[in-house]
Amino acid sequence: MSTIEKREITAELQDSYLDYAMSVIVARALPDVRDGLKPVQRRILWDMWDSGLTYSARFRKSANVIGQVLARYHPHGDVAVYDAMVRMAQDFSLRYPLILGQGNFGSIDGDTAAAYRYTEAKISRLAEELLVDIDKETVDWVPNYDTTRTEPKVLPAKLPNLILNGTVGIAVGMATNIPPHNLSEVVDAILHLLDHPGATIKDVTAFIKGPDFPTGGVIFDTKGIEQAYATGRGPITTRARAEVKERKAKQFDIVITEIPYQVNKSELVKKIAELVQDKKVEGIRDLRDESDREGLRIVVELRNDIPPQKILNQLYRHTDLQKDFHLNMIALVDGLQPQLMSLKDILVAYLEHRKVVVRRRCEFDLKRAKERAHILEGLATALSAIDRVIATIKRSKDKEDAKANLIKLFKLTEVQTVAILEMRLQALAALERQKVEDELKEKRALIKELETILKSPARISQIIKDELRELKEKYGKEGRRTELVVSGLTEMRDEDLIPQEEAVITFSAGGYIKRLPPGTFKVQKRGGKGLIGSEVGEDDILTHFFAARTHDNVLFFTDRGRVFQTKVYDIPPASRTSKGKAIQNFLELPAEEGVSAIVAYSDKRPSSAEASAGRQATSDKERSEETSMSHVTDSTSHFLVMVTKDGLVKKTSLEDFKNIRRNGIIAINLKKGDLLKGAKLSSGKDQVFLTSGQGQAIRFSELNIRAMGRGASGVRALRLRKGDTLAGFDIIQKETAAQSDAKVLTVMSGGYGKQTPLKEYKVQGRGGSGVKAAGVTAKTGHIIASCIITDHVTLLALSAKGQVIKTDLKSVRTAGRVAQGVRIMNLKSGDKVAGVVVV
After folding, report:
1. How far apart are CA 652 and CA 564, in angstroms?
2. Where in the sequence numbering do the catalytic residues fall?
3. Which of 76, 46, 75, 80 is nearest to 145 (CA)?
4. 8-state DSSP, 511
5. How many angstroms separate the Cα of 668 from the Cα of each of 105, 543, 650, 835?
6. CA of 563: how far to CAs of 390, 635, 659, 676, in Å?
7. Cα–Cα–Cα angle for 194, 195, 198, nearest 5°?
């Protein structure tokens, strides 16, 4: 009669779940470190071996194997058994397949194998090495699920299968992911370990340099590999093998012949096609999968005007042509305990297993040799006195009496006596008697040899060495498939994926920013009305407008004296008429702080033309009346010069701005009521040029400003009249100051502008009132920008309401310092010029 035991449901669920978890971990998902096999894989190989389906046998239907495995050892789903069998037969999944398949066993495109009634299989030659000596009591056995048979708990495993073929498994609360390796390298590492048990992981990786994937490819970052091998975890970066080949003159293709491990080829091709369709990768004309029986081949045909290496870098970034293999070496120790293991731990565990197997094999052979020698000794005794043996048998009344008489007469054991009684008459021949004596001598020598081996751990190690060398000679002739790049993979920067292009950046008082190509604007005659440059709200105006290149760094200075950093390519591209994106989308800029100055600079020194094209002027949002200027220069400039609304100037080393946090850092300590007005880069030996809104200008040497820390406030640069504020700011480089054709471009809010020779502004001392820079009237409006120009050819002017005009600077008349200039832009009522840029 059954009884029902009451129990808390939480405790029951906990125990049941733990039992289930351990069952999955031990009996399904994780491999044994000794033979590298999961239970289902071990059962398949054992059943095929036991059924005689060895390498030398004929292929047999997979359905036969699946049926036998299910019936005898693995009472689970047939799909799970067949899937495990298929994977062991796939040469793109295992470095050394354990099963030879005949028929459709799937493909690298992700195609599934044909049904098991259509395919045939047998054990591979290498898999036999995992099963050799299994009949010599080398491993323990357990009953199968219905106790009608026994199955091995682990295979003898002459080879370290776990590290050779790797494994993938997802258990409950843990997973394993071990890559395949090259047999020759693994054998060399084990031989070294046998000779040097105290070897470090660095010593081991001198032989096993990295994974050797069946699909080939290229591995980078050997330091990362060594760390992953030491800890048992870590990413290993792999890339496809791709070459840029010239199809015709100046026409290139990217040809891919190997892909990273576990990458689906058809999905990879599909992903590339999607990138082209979505215009995330531009410049691909055609995409073809030309793979056949000879091997994998994907051809990416490029347009003539596209740099092939740039497209290849984009494919590495956006597709699985570059993929990290995340090493996670978890395996079962002694078939029970899951453990995260280093590479050395796995090899040591394999060696301990092999030592046990060799010892048990020797013990088995010794036992059999002694048993045979014992019988041979009895036969030798009988043959030496054969006449007496025959006479004794003839006198005996039956077999049992003969046995007893022989035992008594010759002091034999029962086993020896039975052998004598079963001996054929042909053994009486002289040659047959000699064979017995020779075999007995051989067995005695074997017994002595085996006993010596069992007493000597060094002899056991030597046997393992000899077997490994033999296996290396037999299976390790093929070299590596996966190439190792010792120098390591240079981190793929965004610059590698984005073309270096000129751009125009606009920023509004409302905090909206966008990136436009300079070609967006057409050249028009001076005095035109221009095109719509940006859609802004009724209460919003454009405050910054500058040129840069896509790889440049951009520093955003706020009116409160803080600075933030991003890249030009991080600024979202947009159409000419779009509003743009709020800057808070990619900068942690507080809502109460406004951007008062922007500096863009390149990590690489540009050409002289690029340096000239980099100078630009922008406006500020100071009540729509004040303006500021930004420029692009190179990172070889050593200082950042900042000016404030009240006419202070400060010089700080650029190194102080190299590492800027996402939430910004302090750039200048502002006095009460003052605001940061502009910022530019300098060499430390340049000149500073400033103009005020009411028309005053000063030019002085940068040497008059000592370098200060980020927390300083600065010193007086221009003494301003009451109600006046700083408007224009530029740096005069040493080369520019020496040029006779250098000019000062002055632009006023009423749409007027002029060019004035730079030589009309003499160099003064810092802190003075300066000289007159323009005839400022109500018609011209106050000065909103001024900058130094040399060989610039095009002027882009932007109004506060979004009108843009692009015109040739040759049409802007050269005039003296006190002149008003000429109209460069016709403005609508209530509109005014907000900023200019020279390109």
Report:
1. 16
2. 118
3. 75
4. S
5. 69, 21, 8, 24
6. 113, 17, 11, 11
7. 85
Residue showing tokens 């009496």: 401
- C-alpha 401/C-alpha 408 separation (Å) is 11
DSSP state for residue 171 in the 8-state scheme:
-
Helix (H) or strand (E) holding 247: strand 241-248
Reduced 3-state DSSP string for 513-526 = EEEECHHHCCECCC
- pLDDT for 551-593, tens place per residue? 888 889 888 899 998 888 878 777 777 778 888 877 888 877 8
Q: What is the maximum span of the chain, computed from C-alpha positions, in angstroms?
A: 151
Report residue 749 as tokens.
Answer: 């809010």
Helices 343-384 and 457-475: angle between axes, nearest 10 degrees: 110
Kindly compute the dihedral angle of the four CA atoms of residues 245, 246, 247, 248, in this order, to the nearest 10 degrees: 180
Rounded to the nearest 5°, which phi and psi values hold at 499? Answer: -65, 145
The total number of residues written for the chain in this structure: 839
How many beta carbons lie within 10 A of that of residue 381, not counting itself? Answer: 17
Q: How far apart are CA 56 and CA 125, in angstroms?
A: 8
Beta-bridge partner residues of 794: 808
Closest CA to 263 of 114, 110, 97: 110
Only one residue has tokens 């075999």, namely 439
pLDDT digits (tens, 9 = 90+) for 207-244: 999 999 999 999 987 778 989 999 999 999 999 999 98
The distance in angstroms from the start CA to the end CA of the chain is 97
If one counts every other C-beta atom within 10 angstroms of the C-beta of residue 243, the result is: 11
What Cα–Cα distance (Å) separates residue 268 from each residue in 77, 264, 818? 31, 6, 67
- Please, are residues 68 and 46 in contact by the beta-carbon 8 Å criterion? no
Dist. CA 140–CA 360, nearest whole Å: 10
Structural domains of the chain sorted by starting position, each given as residue range(s) with its CATH number in brackets? 37-156 (3.90.199.10), 241-320 (3.30.1360.40), 356-475 (1.10.268.10), 500-838 (2.120.10.90)
Containing 700, the helix (H) or strand (E) segment is: strand 696-701
Distance CA 601, CA 617 (A): 14
Highest mean pLDDT among 241-255, 756-770, 821-835: 756-770
Question: Mapping DSSP to helix (H, G, I), strand (E, B) and coil, where does residue 269 land?
Answer: helix
Determine the Cα–Cα distance for residues 160 and 346; give it in Å rounded to an integer: 9
CA distance 760 to 739: 13
Angle at 323 between CA 320 and CA 325, to 5 degrees: 140
